[in-house]
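Section: Multi-chain targets

For targets with more than one molecule, the full set of components is provided together so that the structure can be written out for the assembly as a whole rather than chain by chain. Components appear in the order listed by the source. The example entry contains two components.
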Amino acid sequence: MIKFSNVQLGYGRRSVLNDLNFEIQKGDFFGIVGPNGAGKTTLLKAILGLLKPIKGKIHFLNNGRGHKKNIGYVPQHASVDELFPVTVLDMVLMGRYAKMGIFKRPKSNDYSIAEKMMKNVGMENLAKRNYRELSGGQKQRTLIARAMAGEPNILILDEPVEGMDVQGEIVIMELIKILHAEYALTVILVCHDLNIIANYVKTLSIIHNNTLKLGPVESILNEETMANVYGTQVKIVDIDGQKAIISKLNE
Amino acid sequence: MNEFLTNLEFFKYSIACSVLVALVCSFLSVYIVLKRIVFVSVAVTQVSSVGIAIALITGLNPTPISLFFTFLGVVIFSIRFPERRLSNESRIGIGFVVASAASILLVSKSAQGIHEIDDLLYGNILAATPFQIYLMIGIITCIFIAHFLFYKEFSAVTLDFEMARTSGIRARFWELMLYLTIGAGISIGIRTSGNLLITTFLIMPAVNGLILANRMKNVFIIAVTTGVISALAGFYISFYFDLPTSPCIVATLFIILCLTLPVRFLKRNL
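Its structure, encoded as tokens over all components, is:
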């Protein structure tokens, strides 16, 4: 669905990621991890089309029928300016704007899609509430609904559980999991929480030393790789079928 | 009041001009404050003054020259450069001081020197002519039509530029269009109202609206109402006490803003 061919990413003359050659398959749940400053945001910006590659090409393919890029983007909720006085419904409707076309106003179809997406994320009862009055988890769900309102085939989330408590993290991640399955989405997730990554993504990409290591999460997420990337010993344990990654601080 | 009404015929174009400037700038101020580009608008206003300074020394029509310089300023200040060595804030600051100095230098050697510097800062409300008013009405109509037609594009690039881009909206183009309407709003009133008043109208009405309202529509209504009322009240106060008009309007707006804060407090706590 998304193919990187000899891609080099960076800013000006400074290269951040080199020789990227990989594909993100349709329907994948793709996680991006790496230490701070490794280039997670750079890779995300490139996929979003906000950063042009220095070299190489990023292809968006749709079942071999040509190029199609229909992305729903969920930024970190803290990045959305709370000064703006909009309701949850207004915010979700914004996800329809690009679909409506120029000169057009939201029609009943746009409202029904927005309402459906609010229902999907459990925000239908807060449709008239001001966005800035919501909790962090509610804001995140609103932004997911906004991204989904554009009926995307790729959902990209930047640190979706940043600043949330454990319960909030689970609610958001389970919601993403349901949407991934229900709408046959390709999900791309940037997250620094390895426990989230370990339990939700199918394919994992680890950014380290200006390049990308990629594979199924079971094979790539191991103690040796983690120690190498993060420079600290970790232990990966299985608790009731769920993976937990623990730093070994005393060693 | 009777004396004011008696002299209304003499002031009618000046009042119309003040109200039109208040109307359009107060409306645009909502985008300026929400987009956090107050300093950009201040710098663009100053660049617009360079156009007025050139018009003053050459005797040309100030509106098209001011419009040209304003659009130039809009394009320059709206470009986002990587902030590795020079922050965008510094770039805008440099633009502001250079434009300020340039406009003063341009008029300093003219026959009326200091008087024209005063005109740049405070405007010359007596420069309002019927032609000027019709021109303003025409441009303001275009601005409002653009904002009516493209509300969703302008609001999307104001709220979340990156989301707008990734969702398929031509965000850079619409942001530039938004800035051009702001530039047009600035340039039509700069000759008659001056820097001080234009800058005030581009900030304070929206702040008032955002303090009081929780919906975009209401923010626009409160901002425009505040701007127009303060223009009329300030004009009357300046006439009554024989004071300069622009500072009176600014003071009126500030008093309204000060009264807004307790209203907001009561609204939240009652």
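Chain B touches chain A through 29 residues (CB under 8 Å).
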